[in-house]
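debug: dumping io for the single-chain case to check the tokenizer round-trip. Nothing else runs in this session.
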Amino acid sequence: MRRPAPLFRALLAVSLLAGCTSYRPTPPAFHDALTQPYRLGAGDRVRVTVFEQEGLTNTYSVDQSGFISFPLVGAVAARGSTAQQLEKAIAVKLRQGYLRDPDVSVEIDRYRPIFVMGEVGAAGQYSYVPGLTVQKAIAIAGGFSARANQAEVDVTRDINGEVMTGRVRTSDPLLPGDTIYVRERLF
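debug: decoded output
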């Protein structure tokens, strides 16, 4: 009796390849982060304006520990805050013996960078601009290599301190700090 060895080998190969895949559906929080107000993080730079206080009006960088160093009041927590929350935090600290009724405004001057890796022309760190999509980021990084999977890419994103990776289409929007990984196509 003859065994269907080629069929058996093919099924074995397919099952082994299926077991090697790392695909997991993108968690709902991954896309929900796109509709939430922007939260500051290390690497962002903000422009703080204190009305009628030119000595305090300046640009400040969020350091690695998530703080900005503000004159008179010292370190102010910025990581995880929106621009409006940071305005209130600075105003509260300035009211504690420095200014009677400070009028503080915060706007984002420069976002933290994105990172593009894998099958692209020039992998590396690139500046984020609002409205950036995966496809535009890949174009900035020199485009796809000849071996790139051009349909979907993996994006790693930090959402409220939890790092998540999701497989997305190239038309999906990005957030500051995202890492894009372009996989190699199989055939």
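debug: round-trip ok. Residues 149 and 183 are 6 Å apart (CA to CA).
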